[in-house]
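Renewal narrative, Specific Aim 1. Our central claim is that a sequence can be written position by position from structural information alone. The example that follows is taken directly from our test logs and has not been curated for this report. It begins with the structure tokens describing the chain, in the order in which they were read.
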């Protein structure tokens, strides 16, 4: 395995930051929440390691953050194993992002796609936790991205509610099994990211306007909001086994 370290261009670490001297690994760190978290961690003084599927986009992000980068698909578990075995030194914190949930009514649910969803949302966190033992420093963090949108019961949600519930249950058990490494889940509602724009297409502006009009916070949650929470969970060593919601109050109102 060959990792590439590039020179800094844009983000300058804070010499007195709360993560100074620590290493943050972001799996899925070339865009959206992963990228925003990598930037915040870098601003707090951390060294950053990034993985993602798109080599070109990852290269540009690596240049911006002076990050070590490795392009690969994290659901290729043999490749994931090789990556962790190739880490030259332990890391302090790991954030795992992933694709959006797969919604489909029972009658049209694609079983192959459902299996890929299980891999991305349950088996990937499980594999990361296995590799973390001995490679994430004591008191460090494993952070997994979950969601709030599938908690309600409704026709057409398919497998998504089970994966949402399963990730939180998995994190609670892992927090005991891999202690003193801490394990937490960030459960996000709608977050205004490139992935959201891709999924909604022409309907994205309508969705943004709806949320601005209905959310108690009066605005749409963005990737920087989630990144701030992620870095807080890295810093606060008293939190483990928790699922923390960040949705701007979306669960409190209809829609």
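The sequence written for that structure reads:
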């Amino acid at each position: 395995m060959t990792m590439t370290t590039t020179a800094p261009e844009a983000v300058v670490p804070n010499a007195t930051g709360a993560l100074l001297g620590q290493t943050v690994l972001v799996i899925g760190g070339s865009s959206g929440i992963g990228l925003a978290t990598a930037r915040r961690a870098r601003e707090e003084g951390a060294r950053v390691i990034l993985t993602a599927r798109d080599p070109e986009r990852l290269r540009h992000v690596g240049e911006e953050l002076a990050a070590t980068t490795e392009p690969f698909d994290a659901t290729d578990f043999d490749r994931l194993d090789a990556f962790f075995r190739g880490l030259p030194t332990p890391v302090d914190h790991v954030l795992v992002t992933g694709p959006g949930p797969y919604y489909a009514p029972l009658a049209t649910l694609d079983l192959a796609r459902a299996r890929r969803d299980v891999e991305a949302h349950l088996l990937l966190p499980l594999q990361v936790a296995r590799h973390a033992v001995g490679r994430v420093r004591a008191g460090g963090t494993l952070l997994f991205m979950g969601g709030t949108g599938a908690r309600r019961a409704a026709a057409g949600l398919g497998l998504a509610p089970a994966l949402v519930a399963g990730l939180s249950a998995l994190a609670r058990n892992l927090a005991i099994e891999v202690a003193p490494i801490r394990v937490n889940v960030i459960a996000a509602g709608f977050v205004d990211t490139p992935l959201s724009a891709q999924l909604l297409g022409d309907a994205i502006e309508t969705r943004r306007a709806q949320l601005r009009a209905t959310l108690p916070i009066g605005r749409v949650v963005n990737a920087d909001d989630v990144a701030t929470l992620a870095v807080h969970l890295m810093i606060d060593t008293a939190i483990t086994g928790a699922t923390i919601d960040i949705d701007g109050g979306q669960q409190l109102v209809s829609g």
